[in-house]
Write a structure and sequence with these properties.
alpha/beta; Isopropylmalate Dehydrogenase; 10-stranded mixed beta sheet; two-stranded antiparallel ribbon; about 40% helix; about 20% strand
Length: about 375
């Protein structure tokens, strides 16, 4: 999963890191408080062969915190991550459907403050479970409509709401580069014998430039120019484009054709959650928010208030996100051990939470994954 460029950059950033790594834990809201302990338990249980030890820092953020204190993302949390943590895990955040004065999403703010410009979401089926899928959705993480520059005004007695969609050449170059590097790295793993649906790397640029010719047009053109200007490096990658609405259609009709998909923030968000349906549940899909020298693992599911406190939240997405965090921190061997244990749990199909049709508890699944180390 880890691109060679990202791995090189992050290895430099972590080259002086001690074997005892400090991981920030931000449970957030709802079931985030139930699944983030899964990441902690898995890290503590990793075999000593990897030479890693972990210590943990409990950090605060979320809508519930905002309701209590008026702050969704305390500066203390950001400062601790910048100065004391080698990586972090973020659980979930509740998102009110109506405007709440003074509130904005803490995970969106955290991505900006920590310079985490890429959201990397691998979606891969386990053999015999669900549709054959082996794709990575690389989502630009800092701009598009998520800059949250909105206004509302009246005209002719009617309210009109407007939101700014921002696409910049700089941000698009960054996300295009990491997507292309991930495509190369995935092919390198295949050539070493890694199982895959794909024989050749490809990248699919998703956009809506047939309508948004200026903003999405810039995204499309920037990634294409990056690809063509570096043909000596990226020429082995098949370059493709897909308009976002037809991308959704094809993703559900023929998911096996997609390798690496790169998209602006909003489209990437929607595609990522939709792709989770192909592998059974949002509860098994991981992600990582990645910058040049920091990574936050984040399960793709929300705070799920309907099952909060019942002890049945699926911890697999968090466990996989923990592995993905380790991968981007420069510890792919430890990450692989976690992936293998999770795949074994899913393939055996006996200990699983209700979202996958089982009756097991959150802790049952955690214990079963750990026993496979």
């Amino acid at each position: 999963m880890l691109s060679s460029a990202a791995r090189s950059s992050l290895r430099r950033a972590y080259s002086t890191a001690p074997k005892t790594l400090t991981i920030g834990l931000i449970p957030g809201d709802g079931i985030g408080r139930e699944v983030i302990p899964a990441g902690k338990q898995v890290l503590e249980a990793l075999p000593s062969d990897f030479g890693l030890k972990f210590q943990f820092t409990d950090l605060l953020a979320g809508f519930e915190l905002f309701k209590k204190t008026g702050t969704a993302l305390p500066e203390e949390t950001v400062e601790a991550m910048k100065t004391s943590c080698d990586g972090a895990l973020f659980g979930a955040v509740s998102s009110p459907t109506t405007k709440v004065q003074g509130y904005s999403s803490p995970i969106v703010a955290l991505r900006k403050k920590m310079g985490l410009y890429a959201n990397v979401r691998p979606v891969k089926s386990v053999e015999g479970i669900g549709r054959p899928v082996d794709m990575v959705i690389v989502r630009e993480n800092t701009e598009d409509l998520y800059i949250k520059e909105e206004r509302i005004y009246e005209k002719d007695g009617q309210k009109i709401a407007e939101a700014i969609k921002r696409i910049s050449e700089n941000a698009t170059n960054r996300i295009g580069k990491i997507a292309l590097e991930i495509a190369l790295q995935r092919q390198a793993v295949r050539e070493l014998g890694g199982a895959s649906l794909h024989s050749k790397p490809s990248i699919t640029v998703t956009h809506k430039s047939n309508v948004l010719s200026v903003s999405d047009g810039l995204f499309r053109e920037t990634v294409k120019n990056l690809y063509t200007a570096n043909a000596a490096k990226y020429g082995s990658i098949d370059y493709k484009e897909q308009i976002v609405d037809s991308m959704v259609y094809r993703m559900f009709r023929e998911p096996e054709i997609f390798d690496v998909v790169v998209a602006p923030n909003l489209y990437g968000d929607i595609l990522s959650d939709g792709a989770a349906a192909l592998v059974g549940s949002l509860g098994v899909v991981p992600s990582a928010n990645v910058g040049d020298n920091f990574a936050i693992g984040e399960p793709c599911h929300g705070s799920a208030p309907d099952i909060e406190g019942k002890g049945i939240a699926n911890p697999i997405a968090t466990i996989r996100s923990t592995a993905l965090m380790l991968e981007f921190m420069g510890y792919p061997e430890a990450a692989a051990k976690i992936y293998q244990a999770v795949d074994a749990n899913l393939q055996e199909d006996t200990i699983k939470t209700p979202d996958l049709g089982g009756k097991s508890s959150t802790q049952d699944v955690i214990d079963d994954v750990i026993r496979r180390f």
